[in-house]
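Lab notebook: predicted structure, single chain.

Context: the supervisor wants predicted structures on file for every construct in the current expression panel, including those that have not yet been purified. This is the next one on the list. No modifications to the sequence; it matches the entry in the shared construct table.
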Amino acid sequence: MNALDFAKFGQLYKNEGIWNGKRLIDKTWIKKSFTNYFTENKDFEGYGYLFWRKVYKVGTRNFEAYQCSGNGGNKIIMFTEIPVVIVITAKAYNKSYAHSQAEKIVQEYLLPAINNEQ
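Prediction complete. Output recorded below exactly as produced.
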């Protein structure tokens, strides 16, 4: 898969399983995928069926997202309240900074740019 394929996958989930007007994934599965099954830990943002919940903070605004996270800092990030899917492809495989670097790109550069447009 390439970055465009990953973006399509993210958009499919953002569209609750519908692509070009056709249901490809059951809406119930999407909901279960985005459900936090680790509610006992209040410091943990959440994890469902292979999707992590993350809340990014930019200024006074919160951006809730669900994301797939792969080795090397690769991510597919779907935002719940804005019409955005972000794909990050990286190759920091097995490096301790891989995910924090990707998170920094989203938190400090991409979301502030999006936030300024709204």
